[in-house]
Amino acid sequence: MAAALALAPATTPAPTPLPHSPPPPHPLPPAHSVLGVSKSATTKEIKSAYRQKARKLHPDVNKEPGAEEQFKAVSNAYEILSDDSKRQIYDRFGEAGLKGGMGGMGGAGAGGPYSDPFDIFSQFFGGGMGGGGFGGGGFGGQPGGGRRRAVPGEDERADLQLDFLDAVFGVQREIAVSRLAECGKCAGSGSEPDTTPTTCGTCGGTGQVVQAAQTPLGVLRQVTACPDCGGAGQRSTPCSGCSGEGRVRERKTITLRVPAGVDSGSRLRVRGEGNAGRRGGEPGNLYVFINVKSDPDLRRDGVDIRSQTEVPFTDAILGTTVKVRTVDGEVDLKIPAGTQPNTTLLMSKRGVPKMGGAAGARGDHLVRVRVLIPESVTDEEADLVRKLAELEQAREPKAGGWFGKKKK
Fold this sequence. Notes:
- By secondary structure, the chain is of the alpha+beta class.
- It has helices at residues 31-35, 43-57, 67-81, 84-93, 95-98, 117-125, 164-169, 313-318, 379-394; strands spanning 156-162, 171-182, 198-199, 208-215, 218-225, 234-235, 247-258, 267-270, 286-292, 299-301, 304-312, 320-326, 329-335, 343-347, 365-372.
- Among the domains are: 31-115, DnaJ domain (Helix Hairpins); 156-197 and 236-292, Urease metallochaperone UreE, N-terminal domain (HSP40/DNAj peptide-binding domain, Sandwich); 299-398, HSP40/DNAj peptide-binding domain, CATH 2.60.260.20.
- A hairpin with a 2-residue loop joins β12 and β13.
C-alpha cells in the first residue's frame, strides 16, 4: 500500500534585514568644523580658533564675497561651543536640540536664535569693529555705532646696512626688531581674562556723550566719544599683563631675504611684521631701509658698474690685455691698439641684476682707461721718444700722424 505523502507546510523565509540607513547628513557644517576644532577641543583652543577666524573674516577687514556670512557662522559656532551647557546639548542633539526649527549656521538676523555677531566680537576683543548688526543701517548704523572700530597696527621701520656685493647679488639676513605684539594673556582684548565687560554707565553703552555749550546763537550740542570708556561702550577690568593696552613690546628676530639689485635708499616691505592692531585690527608692516657700503674699486650707476684701469702709454699705442676687477671677479679686458686717454670700454652683462627683469638680465660694466705718461725718463728712453717724434714729423700730413689728424 502506497504510503501517503505528507506535504510539509510551506515556510516563508525570514526577511533579510536591510542594512541600517545612515541618518541624512547635517544640512550645514557643524560648529566644530566651522571653527576648525575637534569635538574634544578645550576652551582655550576654541577661543584661539574664534580669534583668528573672526579677525580675518570681519566685514570691516575682509571685503571678499561671502566673508560676511562666514563671519556670522564663526560667531554662531563660538556662541555654542563657548557655553558648556549649550555645547553639551549640541553635541548630543545638534542645532535642533538647542531650539526647534532654528536656522542654519549663517542664519543670524533680527529675532534669530543667535546673538549679534558684533556683540560677541565686541565682548571678546573689548570693543567692536562696528556696533550694528547685519540688518538695516549697515555697519555702525544701529545704536552703539559709536563704539570704536578695529584699529590697524602701526608700521615699524628697521635699517639694514649691506656690503656692496651683497646688495648686487642679494643675501639673506636676520634682523632684530622691536615691536608691539598682541598680549598673550588677554589675546589683545585689554581685559583681564575670566572677567565680563559691563555696560558703561556714563554713555549707556553707546560709546558717545552729548556735550552742550551756551553760545550767543543758542545751545551748541556736540557728540563726542565717551571719556570714561573711550568710545567702547563697555568697561572692563584692565589686563594685568598689558595694563589694558592689549599689546606688549617684544623683540623678535626676522629672517629677511634681500633680493638682488637693491641699492641705498631701497625699501623692503615685510607684510604683517609691524605693530599688532587694536581690537582685532590687522597688524602693521615692517619697512626695511637699505644702506649699501661703498666699494674702493667699483661704483654703481643704476644697473651699470663703473670703474677705471691704468695702462702705460706704450700699451695704449700697441694694445694689450689687462685684468679688471668686476662683481664676478677678475676678468680679462682687451685694450685695443691706439686707445686714447679716458676712453670707456664696455663689458657686456657684467653689471647689476635688474630687479623685476627677465631672468639673467643685467646691466653692463663700463671701464674708463687712463693712459699713464711718465713724469721722468732715462737718457735712453728720451732718445727713443725723440726718434719717434722724428718719425711722426716725417709722416705725410694726410696720414694724420700717430695721434690722428692734427687740428688746425
